[in-house]
Design a protein that fits this description.
652 residues, 20 strands, alpha/beta
Amino acid sequence: MPFVQVRGEILSYEEEGHGRKRRLIAHFTDGRSILDLIWFQAGTFKWIKKNYVIGKLYIVFGRPNVFNGRINIPHPDIDPADSLQLGSMGLQPYYSTTERMKKGGLNSHSIEKFTKTLFERLSASSFNDPDPLPASLRQQLNLIPLWQSLHDLHYPSTADALRRATYRQKFEELFFIQLGILRFARQRQQHVVGHVFAHVGERFNTFYRDYLPFELTNAQKRVIREMRHDMGSGRQMNRLLQGDVGSGKTLVALMTMLIALDNGYQACLMAPTEILAEQHYVTFREFLKDMPVRVELLTGAVKGKRRRAPILEGIRAGEVDILIGTHAVLEDSVAFNRLGLVVIDEQHRFGVAQRAKLWHRPGADDSREPMPHVLVMTATPIPRTLAMTVYGDLNVSVIDELPPGRKPIETRHFWQERTETLYRGIRTEIMKGRQVYVVYPLIKESEKMDMQDLENGYTDLCTAFPDLRISKVHGQMKSAEKDAEMERFVRGETQILVATTVIEVGVNVPNASVMVIQNAERFGLAQLHQLRGRVGRGAEQSYCILVTKYNLSEDTKKRIQVMCDTTDGFEIAEADLQFRGPGDLEGTQQSGLAFDLHIANLARDGQLVQLARDTANRILDADPTQSLPEHAAMWQHLRDLGKSSYDWSSIS
């Protein structure tokens, strides 16, 4: 629930409970209804009763809860009504404080006193900071001036004044983020030259004509056309490719690499894990069959003579056409002959400096030297507003349809008590020759967390299915042991894989048709969707079973229902943004574009994000050299915010 402010009086006090559960309750009324004010520190009860007098008017502020049908506010902020000089709205500002501030005697009320003194000493005429938004822009968008917005945020005279002040501040925050991102992107387009891939040649055409395993979807064709245009423009391609699991991103990446090869360049794909890199390597070899394309794998596991002679020397000599690897491809010993295209899979696993190191190699600091094109792939659908903000400097392509023949995954919700029914369903699928994942949130049992764990789950499954072969995989296993267990499942030697979320990315087993997620309520929507994407890769009907405890919060019930209602990753991503907010979404902290929204909210202010972006584009069109006098305060404010760090030369 949001915070509330109530004006009223205390009717009576009573104490309930014993020991550490003892609590003081004040029955508080605004003249129309009653709520309870609750305190739990018994040592303060006497002080509270003495200082908060029955029958006197107070302003109470706090976050209400509902318990046993009654509204209550635990440990509220309370001030005598006659001690506050409230505005005509009768609202008191509330300021967030840390525990350290509170210990130092600084609470919301004391901050409000400082703020009020500041505003009393200042006026619009004495406020020296120039408005960073140009007057023409404020007039065009009907935005109030900076000083007025600051004053009305703290002391609004009307509800409309508060709304306009909030709108102005939200727009300013989003506008300068977009201005910084778009300014950086334009600078890069102007100054960073890319290799020109002038034609589509024999390797691409041969693959398309003779080796393509199935007809491309219209979405795949559209994305390839977008990338061909980028790579032939003479500017460095920087494109984000979004697509759900199984949408065909890997095939698109391979065909884009073949364009690079046709123009005399090498290509590289960097994956976040050895398992995923090896899977890409096997997939590429299967796609290419006997085509004269040399593909090599470079991971930490590739050592000794094989690493030094055939691979590293082949890369240096230009004999390796496509290199697939992990962070190992970033080592100084890896020297490409003519690197033309870099593909980065699951990009949120890499920091911006790591990504840039592939193409911003020593000796290539001259911006006039052509840079390799960059294709960034993610199977985590990104909400549109978040993509515009976090990845706003990248062009975005979306594969929004699955290859023909794929059946939508059927998602069902099971209570933990229905174990026998669940096991019958698992056996039915295995008797059809299918395989099953069972995912747990914990490896071992924990006294602190009431959740299912992998070790006990593995034992239970072995007891329930003594005739089946079962593997287990988790993050505490040694890499070799973990990889061996994964390979057994991939080869079909085991029917059930018991795992933690280490299988979230990179496992491709078309024969697996069931994903069981224990304690699904403990996972976010994006992670549930990623796990669900491990099945449904074959032509058979697949199932995702979300197993939860019975007692769920309303928000959790809604999240589970979203998973059952849709398999559309973008719908799920938008819902995840609404439930969790942008700061918790995976990848935002690794974007390399550090921003911190103080007042705007990407989940609620999507239209404002678009307006801010459109406005920033118009400003950059009108003032490309950043020299118009009326924009001087705006550009200075951007520099003061540190957004000038969107400079290509700073990424090294």
